[in-house]
Amino acid sequence: MDPKALSKYRPFPAIPLADRTWPDKSIIRTPIWCSVDLRDGNQALPQPMSIEEKLEFFDLLVKIGFKEIEIGFPSAADTEFNFCRRLIEENRIPVDVTIQVLVQTREQLIRRSFEAIKGAKRAIVHIYNSTSPLQREITFSGASRESIRQIALDGANLVKELVPTIPETEVVLQYSPESFSDTELDFSLECCNGVIDIWQPSPEKKMIINLPDTVQWATPNVHADMIEWMSRNLNRRDSVVLSLHTHNDRGTGVAATELGLMAGADRVEGTLFGNGERTGNLDIVTVALNMNSHGIPTGLNFSELNEIRLQYEKFTRLTVPERQPYGGELVFTAFSGSHQDAIKKGLDRRRKETGADWEIPWGVPYLTIDPQDIGRSYEALIRINSQSGKGGVAYVLDREHGFDLPKTMHPQVGKRIYDLADERGRELEIDEIREAFFEYFVNVETHLKVVEYELIHNPSGGDVRCKAKISIDGEMHEIDGDGNGPINSFVHALEKIGQKDFKIADYRSHAVRGGSDASAAAYVQLQHEDGRLLWGSGVDSSIEMAGLKALVTGWNLLR
Ligand code: KIV
Ligand code: ZN
User: Fold this and answer.
1) What atom in ligand 1 is closest to the CA of residue 247?
2) 418 in ligand 1 pocket by Cβ < 6 Å?
3) How far apart are the first and last CA of the chain?
4) What would the mean pLDDT of 476-486 be, rounded to a whole number?
5) Residue 518 pLDDT level (bands cut at 50, 70, 90)
6) Mutational pocket test of ligand 1: of 178, 271, 282, the residue with most ligand atoms within 8 Å of the beta carbon
7) CATH number assigned to the domain covering 32-316
């Protein structure tokens, strides 16, 4: 910002709470989760959901495991009202799920909300009014604290009066001092305690006080201080479920929620992937999976997160960013070479360990959780661009294409392939990596080419004899040689025509895993007389021919 512009802004004052306890706390308890996707999330969409879409989204939320779902603002519009009615009249609400309806503390709206929830087994009526100085001054044209508090009390009294009119519905009561985040704490407390005194909750019949971080003006520690202060000072604290409702203006919705839980909150309102007004509501997926990553159960099931993301994108017409924690396309993918190597080593170690997966403590560099636990696969973990390293290329060739390259071959292949990504200026597809591997390292015949080959086994055992027709740079040679196997006899044959300027340093072979034809892969490492050391590879349906082709490849690569 222009330095002059900075003079428009003021620091947010700290909360005088010297004996705060939250910094020493950990999150160990599962909060009550309330999804506000269908209300706060929906109201923030460029194209709000249709009733049919909301019904499907509701089912998705139920399937994930939400037991409290704010379904809308039924008094605000007919579609919202009708959606609520359809849920109730079509018996779509499971017995263990409670719907929640939001309403301003205005008489007609409150009455209409009670009509909307009639017939539900259990429903939360959530009333709110704005309390901050900014709202009092601007939206309510300079209204006094007392008159704003009175709005809350009038609403609470009316709700209390209406509860007995729908006796078949168990009504749970919720109050939010909207814009709590920049309301004077003593005034938030006055409003909340006023409502608590009217509703008179008990430990058996609790009410909810929701403290919205409507706009994030301050750092998460200030939010936590505010929550702890309220938690200490609310009347009948043992009869109140203290709820968080963070937004994300400073990009700290998750942090503010986590510190708020440490500060004593019992409940969390938020949305999938953080959809919501402006920068969004709290992303419940992240908070819940953060808890899971510390071994804490949440009651929410994100084991098929990809599928949830696809459905969410369909309903909201929004896209989950590629770097979104847990849900983003790229969050379990390593491009950088050192990261790829470390992940590969971690996963290899894990594969070698014995015991059930859940018995082995998770410990793979760069991965806070096992991607498989949320329905992501290891296959997509390592992708190849110009920043990639040897380990990543070897990992893809191994996992995706069944080639288990010798370790000392990794640098040679890795370098060529990430150079290729650099030349192309983009990430390489998995199949392109296989193609490049074949082009540069498999069955290469750039100078020396085997035209015919015959292996004669000595019936009395011992050495074998090879006879071959080869061409070197277009010139044909008929050669033969003896050795204890096809490779050695071929090397001998080359020696006899003066073409052996190397020695064999290493040899490996294996059946290609998952190949459509039962092919074998062989790797031969050659050391040239000038000291150069390199690998060639051969693939063939016969393991002997694969070995020979690997040797020929190596010979060609030395030229
Ligand atoms: O952000 C907010 O303050 C709200 C309230 C209505 C709870 O959404
Ligand atoms: Zn909100």
Assistant:
1) 1
2) no
3) 59
4) 93
5) low
6) 178
7) 3.20.20.70
